[in-house]
Fold:
Amino acid sequence: MEFRILTKLIICITILLGVTACTKEVHIDIPGYKDQLVIDGSIETGQPAIVLLSKTNNVYSPTNFQAYLDGFVSGATVIISNGSQSDTLTEICSDNLPPGTEEIAAAFFGLPVDVLVNVHLCAYISFGMIGEVGKTYTLRVIHNGSEYTAATNIYNPTPLDSLYWKPEGSFTDRGFSWVKLSDPTESGDSYAWQVKLAGMPNFKRTFNPFFNDKFFNGQTFDFAYENPMSFDDPNGDPAYRGYYKLGDTVIVKFSKIGKLEYNFFEKKYNQMYSGGNPFATPTNVPTNINGGALGIWVGYSPWFDTLVCQ
Structure:
């Protein structure tokens, strides 16, 4: 009996010594933080180009309002071209806005007017060129001795067949906005969905505003979208959030975008919605910017329609 116990003890010690002898300390080199320019630029039919420049932040950097302000970049040269003419964008800053534009700028930056006019946030705007259907627009950004380029198209818009509203669930005066869409037969069409209530200065994106025709190419079908404005009222009844009410007038902006641009937004929103989830699949957000910058340069071709909830 004692011999068996001694034998087992010797075997355990041998295994333990073998395991510890094979143990190797592993050093993992985690790449350091790299400062990069972030470009957020867009141009749409009938509208000037707008470009925001910012810089990436270290994951361990402060996440306060001052850090948000410090992230924006000014003093760059931004040029767009449609192939036959070029325009150098004008830098306009929030502490020197043209009269009457304060509300629009506040909605654009997501800040109250009284806060916006007392801080220095800059955007680059084209006053010599507006977007036209069928044209390709190139972007050049020159900053700190580096140059970044990108190109985007404004395609022919896809019209909506019809819009309608109907009550949902047990409600008689609350419902979603419904639409009938006939997607073109060409595959790869990509879209963006935005809405606003009549009288609002700016459009707002819904929960999942970007989609493509991967599952409905060439088909006619109906789908619904929620009311994103209903989530902005902290005093609103939670039971009504997401719904339009009877009598609302809704302006819909349905835009066609390019495939590369859709890939950017689709990955970006997936990353936003899965933020903090340890089981989410890591996602690298693609970009159509050349030269080492991040971000997107996107052309929108919108189709506008009006829905009266009745």
User: Anything to note?
Assistant: The helical segments are 2-22, 65-70, 102-109, 113-116, 259-273. Residues 162-308 form one domain.
